[in-house]
Amino acid sequence: MPSGEYDPETVEAKWQDRWVEANRYAYDGDVADPDTAFSIDSPPPTVSGSLHWGHVYGFTLQDFVARFNRMRGKDVFFPFGYDDNGIASERLAEDELGVRHQEYGRREFQELTREVCDRYEAEFTEKMQSLGISIDWDRTYQTISPEVKRVSQLSFVDLYEQGREYRQRAPAIWCPECETAISQVETEDDEQPSHFHDIAFSVSGREETFTISTTRPELLPACVAVFVHPDDDGNQYLVGESAEVPLFGQEVPIIADERVDMETGSGIVMCCTFGDQTDIEWYQAHDLDLRLAIDESGTLTAVAGEYEGLSADEATDAIVEDLDEAGALLDRRSITHTVNVHERCGTGIEFLVKEQWYVELLDKTDEYLAAGREMDWYPDKMFTRYRNWIEGLQWDWAISRQRSSGIPFPVWYCADCDEVVIADKAALPVDPLADDPPVEACPACGHDEFVPEDDVFDTWATSSLTPLINAGWDWDEEAGEFTFEHPELYQFDVRPQGHDIISFWLFHTVVKCYEHTGEVPFDSVMINGMVLDENREKMSKSKGNVVDPDEVVSEFPVDAARFWAAGSAVGDDLPYSEKGLRAGEKLLRKLWNASKLVESLADDAPDAGDVDHADLTELDRWLLASLDREIERITEWFESREFSKARDSLRSFFWHTFCDDYLEVAKQRIRADDGAAADSAAYTLVVAHRRFLKLFSPILAHATEELWHDMHGSDSVHTSGWPDRLGIDADFA
User: How far apart are CA 21 and CA 621, in angstroms?
Assistant: First the structure.
């Protein structure tokens, strides 16, 4: 019997330990009855720092789904992964150790990164267990593990054999801080202060100038053309002439092109290789020269002449000063404009010509959009974000990275003719820097020397395979086909994730799995919002408004945090709220105290087999029939992931209908000891209480487990079965 005040610190720690020690939430994997499996493709957190409040929120919502479906008799597959094979983990190691990855050989730096990540992953595990998330801890994985390396390299080989991948020397999106190519999905817009510079260009062979306005004077040495809109009547006379670039002197053609924005600056635009996507389009469409003035580290090259070796910012200042001295700087004014930056480090991106590997996307965007429509979206509105991303795609997916920490491409190149040589599937995983190619001579020219590929995969090229990783996708050499170790898991029942990585994780997962299996990877997608601070602003370290989960759970019960997490519609952002946490605490006390009272009143309640529901009093039938209605509503809300509606309706019914109204009357009836009426009330209290614990258990996981064991048996409430309707008739008039 529950006694005294509720002690969440003791109760929660006890059950967290027991659940882990007993492997309570292990997936049995009974493939004899695949319909019993319920699979969750849980997001592997990026190992880039400590667990934050957003992780708590997202995984708690997933836990509601897992616990609800487990209660409904499903064998729930709920794994946990660590995404530790990419640039985020590499930067973490660099920051922790005060080093740069370029200072080490690849394997040496990978070992350093592995040591740093091991510490953070152990901390992640401990904290996730302390939140009561019902994960199968035997199903953990790391995206840098040999098993995952094999799956990632198999994916590359399969897509290459399908003709969905290609290697090309072409303009690539480049981060000069991280010194690696990145994909379109890894960029974001950032409002930054800058200057507009009005610069006088000369018309070659004439005593005449025209004005070009630019925010990037450091790109003048990379200027290869000037463009005028064909509808720009005032400047049409320039088309067909040549212009001389100030300070640098190169002559460039003046060309008409409708991509010019006549509303910006003077309406005359310089094309540099490369300042933005439009520059690349012009370069390709008009077969322009290539002048690369900025290198991999954001430093000016020999093309910039006397400015060689300066950073882009230093070059801007020096070039502007020299333009002014030469009389070519007509105006300079402060502005705020949108800059495309690398989302990992906030550095403005550049466009460099590099040899990169790509996954082809642009030719099948209609198919990927149709694939997205095959999945159920919770909430529906999030499909719009998926659609908008696909419709806005401009690039194929660049999957090669010039980093140390990552999974290597299983590729070698003929040193003579550059023929691509791919590793055999049976040999994977391989590292071309350490392993020999699968052939002794080039199949194209017979040359016997090879150059290993030293790039690594984009981390999303691996994270996009989580459904295949978790279902045990592999190449069966004997059968000559890909198979699943756990085919009952695929397609996964639900992909839970934040709305901020729909374009990163969800889209790329759909692409990879669709190409490998011909099917979409998920039956449904559950998209959660972000956690905001109490002023509804995004949490960030720079703002100093980040909430530490350790501090929260040291002050409030974990179940109170779980109650708070259920407080918003799925997909909507949820402000951190101590008021919401205190409301959860109050509900826990109410549930505990009401349970103590039920125990004391119904100690001698008749067994269920001895009670005919028709013999219950009208009030008791009304209570149980009302609870039937509540069960129907809550079940529907859990099925549609409307946790806030389920939480608030259940709390209201329990607090007001049951505790404030029914329990007070039942107490008087039982204490009056009026025979059959007292037995009817005692029986109803026990039945209702059991059902309340079941209904509350997905959210208030620890308190309901403690009360269930104290009052209703030795088995877990979390495997006791979701309550069905009793089917009792009652007068609701």
Answer: 42
